[in-house]
Amino acid sequence: MPKTFLMKRSAAMLSAFALAAIGGPLKVQAQPSTSYDLAIADLVMANHILAYTGVLDAFGHVSIRDPGNREHFIMSRDLAPAQVAADDLITYDFDGNALDKLMLHGHSERFIHAEVYRARQDVGSVVHSHSPGVIPFGMGSAALQAVYHMNGFAHGVPVFDIRKSFGDGTNMLINNAKRGKSLVQSLGNSPVVLMRGHGDTVVASEIRRATARAVYTEIGARIQAQAIGIAAGRPLEYLSPAEGDAFEGNGDKTEGTDRSWNMWVAALQQSSSESR
Ligand SMILES: [Zn+2]
Prior knowledge:
The chain has helices at about 5-20, 35-50, 110-120, 160-165, 175-185, 205-230, 240-250, 255-275, and strands spanning about 60-65, 70-75, 90-95, 125-130, 160, 190-195, 200-205. By secondary structure, the chain is an alpha+beta fold. Helix 1 (about 5-20) packs parallel to helix 8 (about 255-275). It binds zinc ion.
């Protein structure tokens, strides 16, 4: 049997499995068959995975570029990610205007996503979080580094300081296009940008990779903080850019990414069945 067929079949089965785990409004669509349906199922699942792994709590959000229109993106209404279902998803243009479900209240920080998609044609998914382990590395004492292969992409990570462009006394939120553009300038071509006193924004070509990157940005930050503590001032050896890039060079949808995704889906299903 051709490998591509197996991959497609396993993606469809996984998404059906994901839908069963999610429950709620998605139950009416038990067998997503189009690439759009699969993308929506993955977006709902990414919300749940990122909440389950502690990257997102009551706040933060994940989006995808609209598979049907590259000038649009899709993200949930203003809702805790763990509670997101397909009916909560809104399509936006790059000015942050909702194009459907106009009665729903959107996230004020949707401008992060809008401006990333506008500026970065290579990006298909964006995660913005207040990832707790990452916050210390936006505070100026130590730069976030690639500590192991799983966060090999995290070298030369820029830090966005809202104060530099917008002065003291902002509410720290990226809640308009001007702030979004300023953040994206700091992001540059990086897969992640830290945000002083706020969190981080992680991007990737597609949602499973963005989800894995967001999780491993958080795990890597915790490992680095631990290593700094153990080192007690002695120098540390991080991954070089060449080492990080070599692992990333496995492809934009590595086996590791799908393996992690499948594990998180299985863990969510198990925790959902245990709570019934
Ligand atoms: Zn935020």
